[in-house]
Every structure is written in structure tokens, then in C-alpha cells.
Amino acid sequence: MRKIKASELIGPVKQALQEINFDTPAETMESLRRAWKTEVSEAGRGVLEDIVKNREIAAKKRLAMCQDTGMAVIFVELGQEVHIEGPIEEALNEAVRQAYEEGYLRKSVVADPLFDRKNTRDNTPAIVHFRLVPGEQLKLIVAAKGAGSENMSTVKMLTPAAGVAGLKRAVVEFVEQAGPNPCPPIVVGLGIGGDLELAALLAKRALMRKMGQRNPDPRYAKLEEELLEAINRTGVGPQGLGGINTAMDVRIEYFPTHIAELPLAINIDCHLHRHKEIVI
Fold first, then answer.
1. Which helix (H) or strand (E) holds 203?
2. Which runs of E-coded beta strand occur in the chain?
3. What are the pLDDT digits (tens) for 169-224?
4. How far apart are CA 245 and CA 248, in angstroms?
5. For residues 79 and 3, what is the distance between their CA atoms, to the nearest angstrom?
6. Cβ-based neighbours of 227, under 8 Å, separated by 6 or more
7. Preceding peptide of 216 cis, ω within 30°
8. Alpha-carbon gap, residue 63 to 7, rounded angstroms
């Protein structure tokens, strides 16, 4: 049995949260630059140029890429041969607290969602998802999810009769209706199957993959590519100003479901697409 102190997670998670707000992974920068070069809309090209330059300035000056520095979402994959000594969620929240304070990142979390809506003043608590897996590793995927794109997300309980065509239509129509609100070019995460809450979790997990990383099932990989093409044909374009680069990627995660249902969750991510994997 491998033992890890919960306090050992604070440093790496804090660093990851600051890095994803300052730095852009190479594959994401490549997608943005490719979109900039290929965009046919003059206004769209101007937006993409500004986005790329903003990323470069943020990395150089260690400043947040966006005023919305996100709510922390952490996926924890805990190996069954690992014992965590101490309260893991307390450690993760301490990492968030330190990251946002020391990194001068905007604190955007309110304690009560409906009534007084008072700011917690440290961007905690994080949203933490746990999954037990075989082995002696502890893997964390740390994300900063902004509200502009999260607000443009949904769960649709389709019927099996909708089929592939109905599912594709639902996704494309929803993205088209979202328009400029999620700050395109976007990344679209889809959760298909399970039930209402699992579909939403699958969609969020799909966003944690790397740019261009296809589903291992060739049928779903093909569907990802078809949806990406269809979304980019809508003409929404960068920041909704028109063009052919509405989305940078589409990713699907799926799970078995009941014979009478076809759950579909659509979780949109803005062009910031902030997440990082840590293995301990």
C-alpha cells in the first residue's frame, strides 16, 4: 500500500491552477494559430489575432488570460493501492485558496447560489469528482471553468428514435443558438448515455482530453469529426462575428444506458480551455 500525505497535493495543484490561467498548451496554441490563418472572415481573423497575442502576453507577464479565472474543477483518479493520509478535499481547497490569492486571480465563487450570494473570497470550494481505479497512482486533472461557457451547456433527454441524425441536429442547433456567448472558437464536450447526471459528468470529462485526441471507438471518433465540421459550417465564427472557426474540437464520452432513453449532455468550453493533468 502506497501512502501519500494529503498536504503533498497542495503545491502541485496550486501550481497547476496558476499555470492554466497564464500558459496555453502547445496543441491549443497550434489550433488557435491554424484558425487565425484559415479564417475567411476579416472580423474573425482580427479576433483570433487578438486571442493569440493575448495568450502570448499572459504567458510572458504571468497575467491571467481572462478576467474570468474560473471555478476550480478537479477530477481525482485514486489508485486502489494508494492510501491518502489526511483530508484530501481540504488539501485541494487549500491549493485553490493559495493559487488564487498568490496568483492575483479573480475570486468568483459565491457560498449560496440563490439567496445572499456572498463571495467566499478565496474561490473555494472546488468541485471535486472522485473515481477509484486500479494501481498505485494518484492522477488529478485540474481545470478552471468560466461561467460564460458553462452557462451555454445543457442536458437533453432524447429518445432512442432520435438516432445519430437527431443527436447531431440537437448538438449543432444548440451551439448555433449559443452564438457568441461561450466565446468561440469553442471546444464541445459531449456525454452520451448513462442517465441525466452521468451524461453531464461525461461531457465535462470529455473536455479534459487533449486537443484533437479522438475517442478510441472509431464510430464515435468519426462522429466527433462530423460534428466539428457541421458546427464550423454554422457560420457563427470567432466571438460570433462570422466565419468558419466556431469550434476547435468536439469530444465524446459515452456509457451504457436504459433501453428507453438517449441522454445527451453538451458542455461547452471557451477558447481558453484551461486544464492540466498531474500524476503523483
1. helix 196-206
2. 2-5, 71-79, 82-85, 127-133, 138-145, 154-158, 186-194, 247-257, 262-269, 275-279
3. 999 999 999 999 999 999 999 999 999 999 999 999 999 999 999 999 999 999 99
4. 7
5. 11
6. 168, 171, 172, 188, 190, 250
7. no
8. 27
Work out the number of other CB atoms within 10 angstroms of the CB of residue 43: 15
Q: How far apart are CA 17 and CA 39, in angstroms?
A: 31
> What is each CA distance from 22 to 41, 120, 219, in whole angstroms?
28, 23, 36
The candidate with the shortest Cα–Cα distance to 202, out of 189, 191, 187, is 191
Q: What are the sequence ranges of the domains in the chain?
A: 2-19+65-145, 148-272
* Peptide bond just before 185 cis, omega within 30 deg: yes
> Which grid coordinates are listed for 91?
488539501
The DSSP code for 152 is: T
**What fold does the segment set 2-19+65-145 form as a domain?**
Dihydrodipicolinate Reductase; domain 2 (3.30.360)
Contact 260, 222 (CB under 8 A): no
For 102, counting Cβ atoms within 10 Å of its Cβ (0-12 exposed, 13-18 middle, 19+ buried), the class is exposed
d(CA 228, CA 235): 12
Helix axes 10-22, 88-102, angle to 10 degrees: 40
CB 179 within 8 A of CB 242: no
**Are 181 and 151 spatial neighbours (Cβ–Cβ below 8 Å)?**
yes
Give the pLDDT confidence of 79-109 residue by residue, as tens digits.
999 999 999 999 999 999 999 999 999 999 9
Dihedral of alpha carbons 217, 222, 226, 228, sign = positive
Element (H, E) at 142: strand 138-145
